[in-house]
């Protein structure tokens, strides 16, 4: 199960944090590290802090964009301490493992943002759920590697319990790339039918993303939805 989970670090500033995160991953049995546009990598400091987890660094996939990082991924969890008013689950680290066990089908990604600013709103929009680490009110600061360690530990605890059951179904869920194509298609149709004013989109697109992320359509269902949009375009001559 752990091999189907990607730990994705986005725009990491300090190479030492990458190495320490790799070490945290390996101690919990995770090996799939993805780096999105790291500021400095490869780097001697990353190698030094990885200690005996240099193999995780050497196998890390380095990409230039989140789109590339999420290719083939069907379930995305974002780490965030920010309050969110949209309808997506906000889970503690302990709750996240149980939620993942119930909902995972195919490849999963856990996103960690830049050290100072965290995940961008655009990255959070790609997530099916958010996870936060409950800390003391008077001092809530965790560095990146500590956060990776806590989340990895809780996921390991939930997924590798002797009685844990693999909840995967036979349906092949649409991956992130397919969903992004659908969202772009949906936006075009909504603009063409004047349901959406691109000058004043408000939060309609974000709310629709949340709806589809809750539904998690499979490949066949997404093809049906794309077919409906294509039929609408033909009807209106778009």
Low-confidence stretches: none
Name of the CATH architecture of the largest domain? 3-Layer(aba) Sandwich
Radius of gyration: 19 Å
The biggest beta sheet reads:
7 strands, parallel
Structural class: alpha/beta
Short description:
By secondary structure, the protein is an alpha/beta fold. It has 10 helices and 7 strands. The radius of gyration is 19 Å and the shape is elongated.
Characteristic terms for this protein:
single chain; 238 residues; alpha/beta; Alpha/beta knot; Helicase, Ruva Protein, domain 3; 2 domains
Topology:
Blueprint: E1 5-10, H1 15-27, E2 33-36, H2 44-50, H3 54-59, E3 61-63, H4 66-69, E4 73-79, E5 90-92, H5 93-103, E6 107-112, H6 121-124, E7 129-132, H7 144-159, H8 176-192, H9 204-215, H10 219-236
Parallel strand pairs: 1-2, 1-6, 2-3, 4-6, 4-7, 5-7
Describe what you observe in this structure.
The protein contains ten helices and seven strands. With 238 residues, it is α/β, with parallel strands linked by helices. Strand 1, helix 1 and strand 2 form a beta-alpha-beta unit. It has a seven-stranded parallel β-sheet. The model has no long low-confidence stretch (mean pLDDT 92). It folds into two domains: 2-159, Alpha/beta knot, CATH 3.40.1280; 176-236, Helicase, Ruva Protein, domain 3 (Orthogonal Bundle).
């Amino acid at each position: 199960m752990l091999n189907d989970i990607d730990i994705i670090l986005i725009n990491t500033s300090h190479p030492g944090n990458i190495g320490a995160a790799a070490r945290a991953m390996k101690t919990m049995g995770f090996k799939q590290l993805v780096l999105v546009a790291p500021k400095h990598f490869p780097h001697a400091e990353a190698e030094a802090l990885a200690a005996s987890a240099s193999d995780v660094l050497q196998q890390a996939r380095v990409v230039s964009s989140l789109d590339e990082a999420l290719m083939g991924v069907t379930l995305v969890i974002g780490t965030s301490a920010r309050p969110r008013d949209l309808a997506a689950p906000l889970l503690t680290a302990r709750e996240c493992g149980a939620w993942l066990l119930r909902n995972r089908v195919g490849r999963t990604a856990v996103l960690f943002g830049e050290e100072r600013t965290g995940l961008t709103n655009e990255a959070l929009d790609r997530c099916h759920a958010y996870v936060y680490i409950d800390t003391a009110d008077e001092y809530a600061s965790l560095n990146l590697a500590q956060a990776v360690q806590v989340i990895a530990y809780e996921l390991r605890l939930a997924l590798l319990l002797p009685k844990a059951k693999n909840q995967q179904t036979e349906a092949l869920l649409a991956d992130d790339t397919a969903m992004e194509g659908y969202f772009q298609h949906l936006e075009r149709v909504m603009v063409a039918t004047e349901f959406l004013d691109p000058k004043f989109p408000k939060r309609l697109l974000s709310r629709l993303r949340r709806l589809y992320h809750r539904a998690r359509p499979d490949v066949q269902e997404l093809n049906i939805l794309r077919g409906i949009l294509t039929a609408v375009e033909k009807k209106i001559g778009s």
